[in-house]
Amino acid sequence: LFLVIVDWIFGTFVFRTKAYWGISSFKAMLLMILTGRVLPMEFYPETVKSFMIYNPFSISYYWIGHYLSGTDNYEAITVMTVVQFGYVILVAALAAFLWKRSLHILSIQGG
Question: Collapsing DSSP states into helix, strand and coil, what is residue 18?
């Protein structure tokens, strides 16, 4: 759900720029860096890792792998699930705000 809302936010930027390819490429690059797909979380320095572990993007990818492999306890997974729901609420509010603002500048191109 979180990543769908992030796609919605980046979609509102397309209303302003009318350049889907550039926005999509930027989003893909940002997600690869913030989720730990480019470099696993264990390789980051401790200061960066403490931020990266609790960002909403790593929760979407990194913690699911930990859950499936059984390396984390259920208490940590419960805490991260609650944190993820908090992020979903905050990002959904941001997406709704950006959507309302973007509708005012919408211009339809093509036939």
Answer: coil
